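User: Sequence recovery, please. Input:
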């Protein structure tokens, strides 16, 4: 619950934009679906403009709802149209579609209506049928998609390991490295060193075979015996 409260507090504006965008997309798709069903059942009939009424749009939303991209203070034109239903009944009524473009008397227009319900009649133009739903779809997408991308970036940033700031790292006490214990102090070493392998004593034959130089062996001088050996070596015949 605490994590959810913190998340809602930090991303309140983004969540509001996300919900508003989702609402716009959902309602736009619903209205487009209704328009498609209406167009499938309706018929297109010829009509004639008999009169035109002029009045300004009250709000900017009213201009958008009728599929117009003009300003709120622009002049709106509402036509009166006469048309004949398939069963032969002639209808003269004011169209609910307000347009920024002016109509002229006796102008030929096309009317789309339900064959048995003339109250659903509209002037057969794309902006009157699906202009406002398309505007809501685009506006909802502009709010929804960037908000989703921003939330995903924040989520990845929170999951990524944070690096310590240099100033904060300097303020923290530095940890001393553990003291190295010499291997000679076996009694105080943390880890007992492995015993070194015993060195094998090489004989004279092995040293001569390997070609290594033999270190001179120091012998103790012991009187005549040492001198006798040295004389024998000197007087010995060479091979």
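Assistant: Recovered sequence (239 residues):
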């Amino acid at each position: 619950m605490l994590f959810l409260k913190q998340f809602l507090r930090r991303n309140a504006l983004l969540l509001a934009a996300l919900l508003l965008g989702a609402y716009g997309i959902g309602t736009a798709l619903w209205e487009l679906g209704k328009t498609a069903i209406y167009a499938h059942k309706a018929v297109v009939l010829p009509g004639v403009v008999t009169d035109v009424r002029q009045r300004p749009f009250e709000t900017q939303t009213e201009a958008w709802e009728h599929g117009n991209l003009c300003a709120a203070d622009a002049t709106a034109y509402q036509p009166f149209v006469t048309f004949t239903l398939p069963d032969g009944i002639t209808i003269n009524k004011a169209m609910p579609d307000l347009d920024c473009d002016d109509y002229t008397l006796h102008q030929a227009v096309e009317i789309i209506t339900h064959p048995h319900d003339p109250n659903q009649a509209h002037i057969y133009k794309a902006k009157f049928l699906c202009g406002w739903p398309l505007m809501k779809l685009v506006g909802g997408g502009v709010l929804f998609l960037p908000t989703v991308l921003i939330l995903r970036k924040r989520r990845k940033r929170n999951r990524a390991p944070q690096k310590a700031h240099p100033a904060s790292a300097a303020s923290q006490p530095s940890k001393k490295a553990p003291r190295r214990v010499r291997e000679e102090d076996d009694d105080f070493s943390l880890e007992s060193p492995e015993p070194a392998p015993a060195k094998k004593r090489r004989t004279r034959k092995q040293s001569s075979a390997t070609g290594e130089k033999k270190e001179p062996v120091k012998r103790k001088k012991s009187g005549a015996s040492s001198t006798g050996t040295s004389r024998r070596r000197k007087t010995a015949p060479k091979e």
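The chain has seven helices and five strands.
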